[in-house]
């Protein structure tokens, strides 16, 4: 299986001469494929007009040239013990230290998702009902959102978005479940994420959500107020009209 390399660009020197159109670049990359950073390689590339003519590879331990100019400098630089030692020391001193810093300050950090389960569509006639489970503002991106029905995992009628980037390091994801309601059943959304010790279970509460309850309360109050006022008005009218 091909290794998946992570690249950390630690230094980029770019010189573009707009008058002549020349383009010079030196790029130092730290490549590694495992979290323990044991296979860290430092690659130092020298590039002229987008062609890499000279490269230092810390595994090889010397410079290699790819054209006449490159070969000349490869010999010259490879002879420079202090330069080679310095570059080899960079594998630990620069590459591993920078990667450790990135992991401890960014990549190993986790932020718990805020999870909401809501109804998108009520069942009507032959059409099934639909629930949506949304997870917001989590980091890192990797997450698993699944459904269970009376404790059993649901395997069909689920559609999910990708993890959507919010553009501020956080992500969101939305999973939809189509189902035919049965009375007394319990439907839950199960979220697995690096910020949780164990999968978190969010039960679907089929009672009216708060905003709907508020609408009902406001509507009922309005109705009561209307009845009271019209009764008061009617009594007032009756009294007035019964006076001689
Ligand atoms: C660095 O050198 C090693 C050993 O020759 C090689 O396996 C590896 O592919 C080289 N890396 C790059 C990026 O050229
Ligand atoms: C590299 O070093 C060897 C031995 O010290 C010397 O003979 C050779 O000329 C050097 N090459 C360059 C390109 O400086």
TrEMBL record:
Domain spans labelled Ig-like: 113-201
One family name in Pfam for this protein: MHC_II_beta
Membrane topology summary: Single-pass type I membrane protein
Keyword Membrane attached: yes
GO annotations of cellular component type: MHC class II protein complex
Biological process (GO), any one: immune response
Cleaved signal peptide residues: 1-21
Ranges annotated as spanning the membrane: 216-237
Keywords (A to Z) from UniProt: Disulfide bond, Glycoprotein, Membrane, Signal, Transmembrane, Transmembrane helix
Location(s) in or outside the cell: Membrane
Matching PANTHER family: HLA CLASS II HISTOCOMPATIBILITY ANTIGEN, DRB1 BETA CHAIN, MHC CLASS II-RELATED
Name this protein carries in UniProt: Ig-like domain-containing protein
Native species: Electrophorus electricus (Electric eel)
Gene from which this protein is expressed: LOC113568076
């Amino acid at each position: 299986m091909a290794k998946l390399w992570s690249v950390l660009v630690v230094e980029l020197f770019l010189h573009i001469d707009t008058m002549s159109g020349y383009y010079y670049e030196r790029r130092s990359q730290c490549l590694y494929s495992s979290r323990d950073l044991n296979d860290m390689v430092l690659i130092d590339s020298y590039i002229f007009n987008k062609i890499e003519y000279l490269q230092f590879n810390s595994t090889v331990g010397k410079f290699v040239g790819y054209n006449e100019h490159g070969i000349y400098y490869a010999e010259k630089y490879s002879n420079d013990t202090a330069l080679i030692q310095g570059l080899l020391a960079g594998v630990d001193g620069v590459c591993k230290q920078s990667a450790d810093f990135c992991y401890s300050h960014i990549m190993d950090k986790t932020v718990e998702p805020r999870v909401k389960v809501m109804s998108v569509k009520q069942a009507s006639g032959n059409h099934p009902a639909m629930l949506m489970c949304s997870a917001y503002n989590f980091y890192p991106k990797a997450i698993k959102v699944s459904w269970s029905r009376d404790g059993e995992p649901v395997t069909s009628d689920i559609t999910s978005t990708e993890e959507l980037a919010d553009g501020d390091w956080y992500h969101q994801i939305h999973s939809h479940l189509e189902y035919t309601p049965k009375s007394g059943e319990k439907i839950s959304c199960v979220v697995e994420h690096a910020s949780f010790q164990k999968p978190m279970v969010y039960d679907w509460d089929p009672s009216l959500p708060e905003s709907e309850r508020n609408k009902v309360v406001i509507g009922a109050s309005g109705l009561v107020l209307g009845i009271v006022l019209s009764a008061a008005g009617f009594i007032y009218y009756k009294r007035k009209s019964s006076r001689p």
